[in-house]
Amino acid sequence: MTPPPGRRSVLTAPYVACAGFLLLLAAVFAASYGVGTLSGPVAPDMRGVSHQNDDPDMGDMGGTGHGGDH
Questions:
Q1: Per residue in 32-66, pLDDT tens?
Q2: Which of 2, 23, 30, 57 has a Cα at 20 to 30 A from 12?
Q3: Are the CB atoms for 36 and 28 separated by under 8 Å?
Q4: Cα 44 vs. chain centroid, distance in angstroms?
């Protein structure tokens, strides 16, 4: 038993709207990823995580502990 043609469109409307929203969301994320890739790093020398000590002058910055030394 199939519903009448008018009733079928009412039942499928939420699924079509949800699919359209997800497609639009995917397009927006793809566009933002593309723009981000083209713009490059947002700060100087921001090219990923480095596991080496690149700046030996940073050493002990002093006063950055959680103690109460004012």
A1: 999 999 988 777 776 666 566 655 555 555 555 56
A2: 30
A3: no
A4: 21
